[in-house]
Design goal:
It is a single chain. This protein has one domain. The protein is built from five helices and no strands. The model has no long low-confidence stretch (mean pLDDT 77). It is 73% helix and 0% strand. The protein has 283 residues and is mainly α.
Amino acid sequence: MAPRRRSVRTEIVAGFAAVILAFGAVATWSMVRQRRSVAAMRLANETYLQLALQLGQIQSAQGTFNTLLDMFPEERIPVSSRGWLEAARRTRRRQVQAALTLARGSLAGVSDEGDRDFLRRAAAGLARVDAAYAVNDPPLGELLRARAPSPALPALKADIFAREDACEGEVRRLGREVQGRLTRLADGLERQQRQAVQLTLAAIAVACVLGAASAVTALRALRPLTRLRRPPASPPPGRPPRHRGRHRRRAPLSAGEGDSRSGLDPRRPLRHGLKPRPRPGGW
């Protein structure tokens, strides 16, 4: 039998260490993927969804603003529409600045480079819209205060309408990009979740295989110890037990058997004055 290259303790410790390391790797990998999924869900709920809602409101208000502005002042519009245009002119910049603050504030908590690049582009687009609104604010006030057509109003209106139309196109483009980003993010989360389940099951299977291999190794290593504690086999009935070793234990002998083995006849008298022991029943 070839000598063992490793001790029993080494094999058992190595087997259990392999199982523990496998489970630790699975747990660490699951925690990392879970943190990434949580960060992606937070980005989708707190940034992209809110930005999509704000851009939707800005786009809806911009569409209504351009429709009413196209009819003014050639056509007679209700006083309520004129008041709505005045209110929209004063409040729309606050909506754009709120969306701009959201896009810029979310950059600090985003680690993915693709998301950071998109938020930078969204902030730049919203900044252009805010700048266009700031440029259009004085001529819009002049146009809305006009009560009668004048030769200068058509050129003023065309200049204002061109910038407003560009702002509407920019807001619409940003809204589509945010919607697409939300869709891709949801698809990516679903794909990551499916891959995480598959890889977790595979890692658990590998850990189970390592555990079974460690158990088999431990049983093989402990097999010589079980042989040492095995009780001796009982002899068959009618056969005296065999005692191994140098010192054998002899069974007690009867009186007659001892005399016959020593060469003495109990019927003959012993020399040197020794008398034979009488036997019961005579000689």
